[in-house]
Amino acid sequence: MINIVLFGKPGAGKGTQAEFLKGKFNLTHLSTGDIFRYNIKNNTELGLLAKTFMDKGDLVPDAVTIKMLQSEVDQHQDSAGFLFDGFPRTIAQAEALDAFLSSKNQQINVTLAIDADDDVLVKRLLQRGKTSGRPDDQDEEKIRNRYEEYNEKTAPLVAYYQKQNKYHAVDGIGTIAEVTERLTQVLKTIL
Ligand code: AP5
Ligand code: MG
Q: What percentage of the chain carries pLDDT values higher than 90?
Protein backbone atom coordinates (compact mmCIF):
# COMPACT_ATOMS: atom_id res chain seq x y z
CA MET A 1 0.00 0.00 0.00
CA ILE A 2 1.15 3.53 -0.75
CA ASN A 3 0.02 6.41 1.42
CA ILE A 4 0.84 9.94 0.32
CA VAL A 5 0.23 13.26 2.05
CA LEU A 6 -0.26 16.04 -0.46
CA PHE A 7 0.84 19.16 1.38
CA GLY A 8 0.64 22.86 0.62
CA LYS A 9 -0.83 26.22 1.50
CA PRO A 10 -4.41 27.08 0.54
CA GLY A 11 -4.60 27.32 -3.25
CA ALA A 12 -1.23 25.64 -3.86
CA GLY A 13 -2.88 23.13 -6.20
CA LYS A 14 -3.40 20.07 -3.98
CA GLY A 15 -6.84 19.25 -5.37
CA THR A 16 -5.78 19.97 -8.96
CA GLN A 17 -2.73 17.70 -8.74
CA ALA A 18 -4.60 14.96 -6.86
CA GLU A 19 -6.87 14.55 -9.89
CA PHE A 20 -3.83 13.53 -11.98
CA LEU A 21 -1.86 11.58 -9.38
CA LYS A 22 -4.73 9.40 -8.18
CA GLY A 23 -5.11 7.86 -11.65
CA LYS A 24 -1.40 7.48 -12.27
CA PHE A 25 -0.77 5.66 -9.00
CA ASN A 26 -4.20 4.06 -8.47
CA LEU A 27 -4.89 5.87 -5.18
CA THR A 28 -8.02 6.85 -3.30
CA HIS A 29 -8.15 10.65 -3.06
CA LEU A 30 -9.37 11.92 0.32
CA SER A 31 -9.73 15.69 0.59
CA THR A 32 -11.06 16.71 3.99
CA GLY A 33 -12.13 20.08 2.55
CA ASP A 34 -14.14 18.33 -0.19
CA ILE A 35 -15.72 15.96 2.33
CA PHE A 36 -16.73 18.88 4.55
CA ARG A 37 -18.19 20.73 1.53
CA TYR A 38 -20.13 17.61 0.54
CA ASN A 39 -21.59 17.49 4.06
CA ILE A 40 -22.46 21.19 3.95
CA LYS A 41 -24.25 20.71 0.63
CA ASN A 42 -26.28 17.85 2.10
CA ASN A 43 -27.08 19.71 5.33
CA THR A 44 -25.68 17.00 7.59
CA GLU A 45 -24.94 17.66 11.24
CA LEU A 46 -21.21 17.45 10.46
CA GLY A 47 -21.67 19.94 7.61
CA LEU A 48 -23.49 22.45 9.80
CA LEU A 49 -20.75 22.26 12.40
CA ALA A 50 -17.88 22.49 9.89
CA LYS A 51 -19.48 25.44 8.10
CA THR A 52 -19.21 27.69 11.15
CA PHE A 53 -15.42 27.31 11.01
CA MET A 54 -14.84 27.04 7.27
CA ASP A 55 -16.75 30.17 6.32
CA LYS A 56 -14.37 32.21 8.48
CA GLY A 57 -11.28 30.44 7.17
CA ASP A 58 -10.63 28.77 10.55
CA LEU A 59 -9.64 25.12 10.88
CA VAL A 60 -12.36 22.70 11.99
CA PRO A 61 -11.51 21.22 15.44
CA ASP A 62 -9.11 18.26 15.42
CA ALA A 63 -11.44 15.77 17.12
CA VAL A 64 -14.14 16.24 14.48
CA THR A 65 -11.72 16.13 11.55
CA ILE A 66 -9.75 13.10 12.75
CA LYS A 67 -12.90 11.06 13.38
CA MET A 68 -14.24 11.89 9.93
CA LEU A 69 -10.96 11.01 8.20
CA GLN A 70 -10.67 7.66 9.97
CA SER A 71 -14.20 6.77 9.00
CA GLU A 72 -13.44 7.61 5.34
CA VAL A 73 -10.34 5.40 5.36
CA ASP A 74 -12.35 2.56 6.88
CA GLN A 75 -14.93 2.90 4.13
CA HIS A 76 -12.24 2.13 1.53
CA GLN A 77 -10.86 -1.15 2.89
CA ASP A 78 -9.91 -2.45 -0.56
CA SER A 79 -7.97 0.63 -1.59
CA ALA A 80 -4.45 0.25 -2.98
CA GLY A 81 -3.43 3.39 -1.10
CA PHE A 82 -4.50 6.89 -0.16
CA LEU A 83 -3.74 10.38 -1.32
CA PHE A 84 -4.46 12.58 1.69
CA ASP A 85 -5.22 16.15 0.57
CA GLY A 86 -5.60 18.87 3.18
CA PHE A 87 -5.03 16.38 5.99
CA PRO A 88 -3.15 16.39 8.33
CA ARG A 89 -3.15 20.10 9.05
CA THR A 90 -2.01 20.10 12.70
CA ILE A 91 0.55 18.13 14.69
CA ALA A 92 -2.30 16.42 16.57
CA GLN A 93 -3.82 15.27 13.25
CA ALA A 94 -0.44 14.01 11.99
CA GLU A 95 0.14 12.04 15.19
CA ALA A 96 -3.37 10.62 15.05
CA LEU A 97 -2.86 9.60 11.41
CA ASP A 98 0.47 7.90 12.19
CA ALA A 99 -1.09 5.99 15.09
CA PHE A 100 -4.17 5.05 13.06
CA LEU A 101 -2.15 3.77 10.09
CA SER A 102 0.27 1.97 12.36
CA SER A 103 -2.66 0.12 13.98
CA LYS A 104 -3.31 -1.25 10.48
CA ASN A 105 0.38 -2.07 9.90
CA GLN A 106 0.63 0.79 7.48
CA GLN A 107 2.38 4.15 7.32
CA ILE A 108 2.76 7.39 5.39
CA ASN A 109 5.32 6.71 2.66
CA VAL A 110 5.89 10.28 1.55
CA THR A 111 4.73 13.86 2.04
CA LEU A 112 4.70 15.77 -1.23
CA ALA A 113 4.67 19.53 -0.76
CA ILE A 114 3.64 22.00 -3.45
CA ASP A 115 5.48 25.26 -2.72
CA ALA A 116 4.28 28.73 -3.68
CA ASP A 117 4.30 32.29 -2.32
CA ASP A 118 1.26 33.63 -0.48
CA ASP A 119 0.81 36.61 -2.78
CA VAL A 120 0.47 34.46 -5.90
CA LEU A 121 -1.95 32.15 -4.11
CA VAL A 122 -4.17 34.88 -2.67
CA LYS A 123 -4.65 36.21 -6.22
CA ARG A 124 -5.51 32.69 -7.46
CA LEU A 125 -8.11 32.17 -4.76
CA LEU A 126 -9.72 35.58 -5.27
CA GLN A 127 -9.97 34.71 -8.96
CA ARG A 128 -11.51 31.31 -8.21
CA GLY A 129 -13.89 32.96 -5.71
CA LYS A 130 -15.63 34.75 -8.58
CA THR A 131 -17.07 31.42 -9.76
CA SER A 132 -16.46 28.77 -7.07
CA GLY A 133 -19.22 29.82 -4.69
CA ARG A 134 -16.87 28.96 -1.81
CA PRO A 135 -17.55 31.48 1.00
CA ASP A 136 -13.92 31.19 2.14
CA ASP A 137 -12.68 32.36 -1.30
CA GLN A 138 -14.82 35.50 -1.34
CA ASP A 139 -12.82 38.18 0.39
CA GLU A 140 -9.17 38.79 1.00
CA GLU A 141 -9.56 38.97 4.78
CA LYS A 142 -10.92 35.40 4.98
CA ILE A 143 -8.26 34.16 2.60
CA ARG A 144 -5.52 35.83 4.67
CA ASN A 145 -6.98 34.18 7.77
CA ARG A 146 -6.52 30.78 6.09
CA TYR A 147 -2.81 31.63 5.66
CA GLU A 148 -2.56 32.66 9.31
CA GLU A 149 -4.06 29.32 10.32
CA TYR A 150 -1.59 27.60 8.00
CA ASN A 151 1.43 29.46 9.41
CA GLU A 152 0.45 28.87 13.01
CA LYS A 153 -0.91 25.31 12.94
CA THR A 154 0.10 23.58 9.69
CA ALA A 155 3.62 24.86 8.95
CA PRO A 156 5.09 22.88 11.92
CA LEU A 157 4.30 19.71 9.95
CA VAL A 158 7.19 20.46 7.60
CA ALA A 159 9.65 19.70 10.42
CA TYR A 160 7.47 16.81 11.61
CA TYR A 161 7.80 14.99 8.27
CA GLN A 162 11.40 16.11 7.66
CA LYS A 163 12.34 14.42 10.92
CA GLN A 164 10.86 11.20 9.51
CA ASN A 165 12.75 11.76 6.21
CA LYS A 166 9.46 11.83 4.35
CA TYR A 167 9.23 15.45 3.23
CA HIS A 168 9.77 16.30 -0.45
CA ALA A 169 8.90 19.72 -1.85
CA VAL A 170 8.48 20.80 -5.47
CA ASP A 171 8.08 24.25 -6.99
CA GLY A 172 4.33 24.85 -7.41
CA ILE A 173 4.73 27.73 -9.86
CA GLY A 174 4.40 26.75 -13.51
CA THR A 175 1.71 25.13 -15.60
CA ILE A 176 -0.45 22.43 -14.02
CA ALA A 177 1.25 19.83 -16.25
CA GLU A 178 4.72 21.00 -15.19
CA VAL A 179 3.85 20.65 -11.52
CA THR A 180 2.35 17.17 -12.13
CA GLU A 181 5.60 16.16 -13.84
CA ARG A 182 7.71 17.40 -10.89
CA LEU A 183 5.56 15.48 -8.40
CA THR A 184 5.62 12.34 -10.56
CA GLN A 185 9.43 12.46 -10.77
CA VAL A 186 9.70 12.61 -6.97
CA LEU A 187 7.27 9.72 -6.58
CA LYS A 188 9.14 7.59 -9.10
CA THR A 189 12.38 7.93 -7.14
CA ILE A 190 10.65 6.89 -3.91
CA LEU A 191 8.09 4.25 -4.82
P1 AP5 B 1 -9.49 22.90 1.76
O2 AP5 B 1 -10.66 22.56 0.92
O3 AP5 B 1 -8.45 21.88 1.98
O4 AP5 B 1 -8.90 24.23 1.18
P5 AP5 B 1 -7.43 24.87 1.19
O6 AP5 B 1 -6.33 24.04 1.73
O7 AP5 B 1 -7.61 26.19 1.80
O8 AP5 B 1 -7.04 24.99 -0.25
P9 AP5 B 1 -7.81 24.76 -1.56
O10 AP5 B 1 -8.53 23.46 -1.61
O11 AP5 B 1 -8.57 26.00 -1.75
O12 AP5 B 1 -6.55 24.72 -2.55
P13 AP5 B 1 -5.76 23.53 -3.20
O14 AP5 B 1 -4.38 23.48 -2.67
O15 AP5 B 1 -6.54 22.25 -3.23
O16 AP5 B 1 -5.65 24.12 -4.66
P17 AP5 B 1 -6.61 23.89 -5.91
O18 AP5 B 1 -6.16 22.68 -6.66
O19 AP5 B 1 -8.01 24.01 -5.51
O20 AP5 B 1 -10.01 23.39 3.18
C21 AP5 B 1 -11.04 24.32 3.31
C22 AP5 B 1 -11.42 24.48 4.77
O23 AP5 B 1 -11.91 23.23 5.29
C24 AP5 B 1 -10.28 24.87 5.74
O25 AP5 B 1 -10.06 26.26 5.74
C26 AP5 B 1 -10.84 24.33 7.06
O27 AP5 B 1 -11.81 25.18 7.57
C28 AP5 B 1 -11.51 23.03 6.64
N29 AP5 B 1 -10.58 21.89 6.69
C30 AP5 B 1 -10.20 21.10 5.65
N31 AP5 B 1 -9.32 20.17 6.05
C32 AP5 B 1 -9.14 20.37 7.38
C33 AP5 B 1 -8.34 19.74 8.37
N34 AP5 B 1 -7.52 18.73 8.06
N35 AP5 B 1 -8.40 20.23 9.64
C36 AP5 B 1 -9.21 21.24 9.98
N37 AP5 B 1 -9.98 21.89 9.09
C38 AP5 B 1 -9.95 21.46 7.81
O39 AP5 B 1 -6.16 25.15 -6.80
C40 AP5 B 1 -6.49 26.46 -6.40
C41 AP5 B 1 -6.75 27.32 -7.64
O42 AP5 B 1 -5.56 27.49 -8.39
C43 AP5 B 1 -7.77 26.71 -8.63
O44 AP5 B 1 -8.52 27.74 -9.18
C45 AP5 B 1 -6.86 26.03 -9.67
O46 AP5 B 1 -7.49 25.95 -10.91
C47 AP5 B 1 -5.68 26.96 -9.70
N48 AP5 B 1 -4.42 26.30 -10.01
C49 AP5 B 1 -4.00 25.07 -9.59
N50 AP5 B 1 -2.76 24.80 -10.05
C51 AP5 B 1 -2.38 25.89 -10.76
C52 AP5 B 1 -1.17 26.23 -11.47
N53 AP5 B 1 -0.12 25.38 -11.56
N54 AP5 B 1 -1.12 27.45 -12.05
C55 AP5 B 1 -2.17 28.30 -11.99
N56 AP5 B 1 -3.34 28.05 -11.35
C57 AP5 B 1 -3.42 26.86 -10.73
MG1 MG C 1 -8.33 21.62 -2.26
A: 97
